[in-house]
Design brief:
By secondary structure, the chain is α/β, with parallel strands linked by helices. The protein is 25% helix and 30% strand.
Amino acid sequence: MNQGTPDISVCMIVRNEERFLEKCLLSVQPIAKEIIIVDTGSTDNTINIASRFTDKIYKIEWEGNFASARNYALSKAQCPVILSIDADEELQNPEALVNALQNSDSQTGGWLINSISFASRAQGGGFDTFATKLLRV
């Protein structure tokens, strides 16, 4: 990343995501200063896959809501910008995200980004989603 781009923490909550996790992590790896994985009880190969990309893996009990797990992940982030992404999503154009950061002013607090969800891959393919997942903290 160029010197004018803030460091980015990538935060994820996962559980039994071995099918999707590697592709997601490969898509964010080029822009991530750190990758934070919060696992809520995986029984598959999720942790092993995650450990190839980061040593910042936290295991917590599932409390019945995503907000609690996501907030825990966000609390571990050390960078001024956080990308929150699901394991079944993939950044289509990480460079566009970097360009948005480089060309924004300090008043911009969040960005709407496009990602591909692979949740429906078994039914014939992924689908594009747009959500505010990039935040300046």
